[in-house]
Amino acid sequence: MENIKAYVTQHKDRFINELIELLKIPSISADSAYSQDVLNTADAVKKALLTAGCDTVEICETPGYPIVYGEKIIDNNLPTVLVYGHYDVQPADPIELWDSPPFEPVIKKTEIHPDGAIFARGSCDDKGQMYMHVKALEYMVNNNNLPCNVKFMIEGEEEIGSTSLAWFVERNQEKLANDVILISDTGMISNTQPSITTGLRGLSYVEVEVTGPNRDLHSGLYGGAVANPINILTKMIASLHDENNHITIPGFYDKVEELSTEERAEMAKAPFSLEAYKKALDIDEVYGETGYTTNERNSIRPTLDVNGIWGGYTGEGAKTVIASKAHAKISMRLVPNQDWKEITELFTNHFINIAPKAVKIKVTPHHGGQGYVTPINNIGYKAASKAYEKTFGITPIPQRSGGSIPIVALFEKELKSKTILMGFGLDSDAIHSPNEHFGIFNYLKGIETIPLFFKYFTEMSK
Amino acid sequence: MENIKAYVTQHKDRFINELIELLKIPSISADSAYSQDVLNTADAVKKALLTAGCDTVEICETPGYPIVYGEKIIDNNLPTVLVYGHYDVQPADPIELWDSPPFEPVIKKTEIHPDGAIFARGSCDDKGQMYMHVKALEYMVNNNNLPCNVKFMIEGEEEIGSTSLAWFVERNQEKLANDVILISDTGMISNTQPSITTGLRGLSYVEVEVTGPNRDLHSGLYGGAVANPINILTKMIASLHDENNHITIPGFYDKVEELSTEERAEMAKAPFSLEAYKKALDIDEVYGETGYTTNERNSIRPTLDVNGIWGGYTGEGAKTVIASKAHAKISMRLVPNQDWKEITELFTNHFINIAPKAVKIKVTPHHGGQGYVTPINNIGYKAASKAYEKTFGITPIPQRSGGSIPIVALFEKELKSKTILMGFGLDSDAIHSPNEHFGIFNYLKGIETIPLFFKYFTEMSK
After folding, report:
1. Is A457 inside any structural domain?
2. Residues 6 or more apart in contact with residue B389 via CB below 8 angstroms
3. How many structural domains compose chain B?
4. H helices within B203-329, ranges in order?
5. What is the rounded CA–CA span in Å between residue A45 and residue A72?
6. Is residue B312 in a domain?
7. Which top-level group of life is the source organism from (chains A, B) (predicted)?
8. Mean pLDDT of all residues in chain B?
9. A212 pLDDT above the threshold of 80
């Protein structure tokens, strides 16, 4: 595989242009207005997989958006790598904060990406990272050095909870049989210090509605005499954390794994500058659970964040109204061993319990997923580590991440195989935010590194 | 004036149709998209006043929307009544909750309004109530029984704080010289129990912004480690009330007038059914400051209500984001003696003080106004009381209202005259809410009652 670097250099412009075409399709799964675009993206992924060298590619129907399944089986006696990715993207709001339209990709240089980065929604999460695998396959097929079997499962509902993927995986265990699952949907520390994600947080995402009076009221005539749903909602949300920023939901921490002093000391070795972190976010102080460091707070500890809140008059000027309803979207990041369905139920019961009788409460669970930890002593991890070492010239650091890929725990349960999270994005890539981007360096480095994983994994499996 | 009832009956349909035409213009002063409509409404009011019999009517320019000033001076030795009203209206949001478009007036019968009510934004607040005075003038002029001088001052910024009106009044004290100010912009207890508003609450309206990180962040990667501006905002707002629903801003209650046991006993005599109140709003319990009744909470006690809140992702589905900013619009209703500028300052300082260092705070005052109490022993009140008694057949009850007409305190200061609040709306008319309406009975009864006020006030002034 000595020629991979040369191949990438030779086809670089085409690799970038193909990704740009894919990024132009606004495949926002959360907004039904874009459903045709989501479907068109599935078709585009199917074509790309066939062109890259898959023997068969199917658009598999599900209760929701379809799953693109492709495979190239060269020998049943060789190992099989299952590549998972997603072709749907996050909504682009707040749209006004984008410097260029989210679905009109542009390449711009940044301090962190001196070779340029592609700015577009989905560039990093996950179209760009998923497409690295398609191009890695192209390389291996065109150069006759695909060392094992490969299967692709690319879904369209990752940003809305992967409901149909769970349905699909449960019904296709034989089709999806594999020796290792490979996902690029996470990040690494920096372009000079690669890392491999070994832990993911779980997630419980709920929407709450507080209803007071049956109609909007004049705040002068009714103010002070009836429960204002917005005031009540702020009170209820505020009460979910105590003065140490511990979450107050009874039973919430019961199953939380407490790391040993040694493990925490090991974690603390990862390079991290609190000053640089604060400067990058333009904040004077970090904020979180008492007794834990920033890197612990966003990885080994569960959290509760309001992701959206709305109610009453939010237009220009002033309106003296007491709204009939107030709403919030709330997500909890969970750590391994916390069961997301149990946490969702604990939240729901608690939130209803703490409401004053003057309002009515509705809690709607959106989706969730379990946390996950990858052991670093299995051959999947070792093969990935060796691949990064070869292309970056430095051993990657194993790292717990605060994000969630809820499907990973399901894969282990249903397919009985371990998942290796070979992410090439950076925290600063602004995924889920305006001006999401993905470094050209990172994109090409991913295409270079993935075939090496295939090679080492096959060798180590012998 | 025995023929007023006959005149109203004869011209009833025209009176209704003229008001309907006025209601079709969406004069939303809070939203600059409607500025031409606001100006067109001023022109329509000018024409209506000229048609009704004013000798001169001017569109008076101000730094904001113009004030329509009209007058009919019959004898400088006779008293002068200054009628104040406003031609602007509240925004119509949430538009989806209107049963018919807010600016396409329709007449429908309701349980409370068996003779029908006009449903439209501004029907009661204040186009309908203001136009009663225009039609009352028409009657008095056409029938040669205008007993005194009359001046009209109709503004276009009442719903956004009357800033230009204050400017105008300060500069036109001679032009506006009067013996009593008459306003119909309040309500009465019911169609069988009229009441006159003798107290108004003051108002301080502010907008707050909480800024955390400099961009929206992925809640998985950053959740738990940085201050989430929405969580912080809910915590800050929640802390503004204690467990007894007292407001916690230091100094907030310092100037609040505590009513005597006798006064509170007198207030408690007003007919009120808590069960009917809860049923009308479809709430299981009322909610408010410990130690006060519902009618006290919404009249003699100050309040703090969130009128709007927004931040993060509020669209369909789920987005795991930590917003960079969170916002709220907050208004405080004040009681007489509380100075709104002082309260705005107390709020601002307190809100900044309680913020954690991990966020930045911006407080923008929108507008405000002083509370007011009208004595019931002056001839303005007596004349109004007698007028209602004549047309309704029952003595009106003096009543404190929770609403605010900030300009009333200014009138007293600048023009040295008392204001009489002859309101004909009902609490159930849904002003500031979807499906605002104004009873046909109330509209016509107002036109009938106003000329009697002119008559009695002139007689009592002799």
Report:
1. yes
2. B395, B396
3. 2
4. 219-222, 229-238, 261-267, 274-281, 294-297
5. 15
6. yes
7. Bacteria
8. 94
9. yes
Residue A153, pLDDT score:
98
Does one domain contain both A139 and A186?
yes
Question: Does residue A426 share a domain with residue A356?
Answer: no
Contact (CB, 8 A) for B38 and B88: yes
Q: What is residue A201's predicted lDDT score, i.e. its pLDDT?
A: 86
Residue contacts between A and B (CB atoms, under 8 Å):
376
Q: Is A424 among the domain residues?
A: yes
- Mean pLDDT for A37-47 is 98
Distance from CA of A356 to the nearest CA of B (A): 9
Are A412 and A451 in the same domain? yes
CA-to-CA dists, residue A3 to A10, A134, A147, A367, angstroms: 11, 18, 15, 44
- Choose the closest CB to A320 out of B219, B323, B331: B331
**Which member of A235, A237, A307 has the closest CB to residue B219?**
A307
Q: B153 and B35, same structural domain? A: yes
Does B379 lie in the same domain as B432? Answer: yes
The percent of residues above 90 in pLDDT, for chain A, comes to 81
Specify the length of chain A in residues.
462
Asked if pLDDT for residue A409 goes beyond 80, the answer is yes
CATH number for the domain that contains residue A251: 3.30.70.360
Last residue of a domain, one of B369, B392, B424: B369
**Which residue, of B317, B343, B369, is where some domain finishes?**
B369
Interface confidence, given as ipTM, is: 0.72
Nearest CB to B226 within list A287, A431, A433: A287
Q: Do A226 and A187 fall into the same domain?
A: no
Flag if B358 and A286 touch (Cβ within 8 Å): yes
State how far residue A448 is from chain B, nearest Cα, in angstroms: 26
Q: Residue A125: how many CB atoms within 10 A of its CB?
A: 28
Per-residue pLDDT, averaged over B125-147, amounts to 97
Task: Please enumerate in sequence order all residues whose Cβ is within 8 A of that of A26, keeping only pairs 6 or more positions apart, or say none.
Answer: A34, A37, A89, A92, A102, A103, A121
pLDDT tier at A268, thresholds 50, 70, 90:
confident
All residues of chain A having their beta carbon less than 8 Å from the beta carbon of residue B207 are 318
**Whether residue A64 sits in one domain with residue A34:** yes
Shortest CA distance from B218: residue in chain A: A432
Please, which pLDDT band fits residue B375 given cuts at 50, 70 and 90? Answer: confident
Cβ distance A319 to B302 less than 8 Å, yes or no, reads no
pLDDT at A309: 98
Q: pLDDT digits over A147-161, tens only?
A: 999 999 999 999 998
In this structure, the number of other CB atoms found within 10 A of the CB of residue A59 comes to 13
CATH number of the domain enclosing A12: 3.40.630.10
Q: State which residue of chain A sits closest to B286, comparing Cα positions.
A: A226
**Residue in A225, A310, A434 closest to B298 by CB:** A225
Record: contact A298-B222, CB cut-off 8 A: yes
Per CB-CB distance under 8 Å, the chain A contacts of B327 are 314
Q: At what angle do helices B229-238 and A229-238 cross, to 10 degrees?
A: 110
H or E, element range at B414: helix B407-415
CA atoms of B194 and B190, how far apart (whole Å): 6
Q: What is the DSSP letter of A148?
A: S
User: Cβ distance B230 to A306 under 8 Å?
Assistant: yes
Q: Residue A431: list chain B partners with CB under 8 A.
A: 218
Shared domain check, A147 and A239: no
Inspect the interface and report whether the beta carbons of B224 and A305 lie closer than 8 Å: yes
Residue A267 in any domain: the answer is: no
B5-49 tens-digit pLDDT: 999 999 999 999 999 999 999 999 999 999 999 999 999 999 999
B381: its two tokens: 């009140």
Contacts of B354 in chain A (CB under 8 A): none
**Contact at CB, B402 and A222, closer than 8 angstroms:** yes
Identity (one letter) of the amino acid at B76? Answer: N
| Domain span holding position A63 | 4-200+371-461
